[in-house]
């Protein structure tokens, strides 16, 4: 049997002086700016499911490939809906036939293709139409959340050691987050230039903030794990410290070894469950479609015209912002009218993932770009 390999993509579908220099232009365009709704286009990758494996045999390689495409699209569709929804709503998820699923596909990409005269093997990445998926879930009255733009950076500290040599790091590295709304990333380099594991355990805020910024993440999760073998069964004790826009939060969790479970499997399960729990928390925080929309007036101090443009662009990408308009503006401030789909008390944490800081002070909402 002769095998061939290929790869193919198939597409279906500022400073204050600067502000004064441009203020005339801004004043002239403010009315147009105010009428433009910030329709959240959504991240293309947020609606893509990568590397779905297929292995199909048919009368011909072409027939096997066509069958594989349908299978990959169906698997990816199910994975995407599970990723965006809560477990308690899984029984209500819509079930579509192959043609209906195909109508929602925006593009497909093939990698690691191999084929013979009757067999086709590949990994398929399927990207769906963001608006199509949103509309489908909304028509079925199923609340959903969309992935934030940035992953969470994880620093796995095991028995006081940080680095790729420890088994706790390897447990995080083995995870497959394709069905997880949030993604978790390991640092590219911890060999030099940073604090020791002991210093991280005591708190090294500036360094953690810097490493998070270098990796383009909005949050750093320090997961400090130790064995507790003082009693049977073996236990893994994990001290979680999350550093992000909401400040520092801490949590302590313990995992007990199951019958027949190896220590390596216990570490893997613990990493998976921690990631799943954080994701569920985020989903409930940023859930769309579970309540009435709210109007919020938010004040933004204008440091530069670039800040104004940046906030507009970031609001347009945030799925919990139904619309955003500039109600009024002068040389110092802009007043935004926001229509939001999450409870106001959850808006700060949700928008922070998209680079916008918003909070309520003395009865007024204040907004600024996250730097």
Describe the protein's architecture and organization:
A hairpin with a 6-residue loop joins strand 8 (219-228) and strand 9 (235-244). Strands 5, 6, 7, 8, 9 and 10 form a 6-stranded mixed β-sheet that branches. It is built from 10 helices and 15 strands. It has 371 residues and is α+β, with helices and mostly antiparallel strands. 35% of the residues lie in helices and 32% in strands. It starts with a strand and ends with a strand. Helix 5 crosses helix 8.
In brief, what are we looking at here?
Helices cover 35% and strands 32% of the residues. It is α+β, with helices and mostly antiparallel strands.
Distance between the termini: 57 Å
Counting H and I runs of at least 4 residues, what is the number of helices? 10
- C-alpha geometry: globular
Sheet with most strands: 6 strands, mixed
Secondary structure elements and pairings:
Blueprint: E1 4-11, H1 16-34, E2 48-57, H2 61-84, H3 98-103, E3 105-115, E4 119-128, H4 130-139, E5 152-158, E6 161-162, H5 167-173, E7 184-185, H6 197-202, H7 205-214, E8 219-228, E9 235-244, E10 247-256, H8 263-286, E11 294-301, H9 305-317, E12 321-329, E13 333-340, H10 344-352, E14 356-361, E15 364-369
Parallel strand pairs: 5-7, 5-8, 11-15
Antiparallel strand pairs: 1-3, 2-4, 3-4, 5-6, 8-9, 9-10, 11-13, 12-13, 14-15
Helix pairs in contact: 5-8
């Amino acid at each position: 049997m002769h095998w061939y390999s290929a790869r193919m993509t198939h597409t279906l579908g500022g400073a204050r002086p600067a502000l004064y220099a441009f203020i005339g232009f801004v004043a002239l365009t403010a009315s147009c700016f105010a009428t433009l709704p910030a329709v959240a286009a959504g991240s293309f990758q947020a609606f893509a499911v990568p590397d779905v494996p297929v292995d199909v045999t048919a009368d011909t390689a072409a027939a096997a490939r066509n069958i594989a495409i349908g299978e990959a699209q169906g698997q990816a569709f199910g994975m995407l809906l599970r990723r965006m929804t809560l477990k308690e709503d899984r029984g209500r998820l819509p079930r579509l036939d192959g043609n209906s699923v195909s109508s929602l596909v925006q593009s497909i990409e093939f990698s690691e293709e191999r084929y013979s005269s009757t067999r086709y093997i590949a990994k398929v990445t399927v990207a769906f139409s963001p608006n199509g998926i949103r509309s489908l879930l909304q028509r079925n009255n199923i609340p959903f959340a969309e992935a934030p733009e940035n992953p969470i950076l994880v620093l796995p500290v095991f028995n006081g050691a940080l680095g790729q040599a420890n088994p706790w790091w390897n447990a995080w590295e083995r995870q497959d987050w394709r069905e997880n709304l949030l993604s978790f990333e390991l640092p590219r380099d911890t060999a030099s230039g940073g604090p020791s594991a002991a210093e991280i355990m005591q708190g090294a805020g500036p360094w953690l903030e810097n490493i998070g910024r270098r990796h383009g993440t909005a949050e750093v999760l320090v997961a400090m794990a130790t064995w507790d073998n003082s009693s049977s069964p073996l236990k893994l004790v994990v001290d979680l410290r999350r550093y992000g826009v909401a400040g520092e939060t801490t949590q302590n969790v313990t995992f007990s070894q199951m019958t027949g479970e190896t220590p390596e499997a216990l570490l893997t399960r613990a990493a998976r469950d921690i990631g799943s729990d954080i994701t569920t928390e985020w989903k409930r925080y940023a859930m769309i479609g579970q309540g009435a929309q709210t109007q919020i007036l938010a004040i933004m101090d204008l440091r530069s015209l670039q800040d104004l443009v940046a906030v507009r662009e970031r609001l347009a990408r945030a799925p919990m912002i139904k619309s955003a308009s500039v109600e009024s503006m002068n040389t110092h401030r802009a007043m935004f009218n926001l229509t939001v789909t999450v409870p106001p008390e959850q808006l700060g944490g949700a928008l922070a993932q998209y680079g916008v800081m918003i909070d309520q002070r003395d009865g007024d909402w204040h907004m600024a770009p996250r730097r």
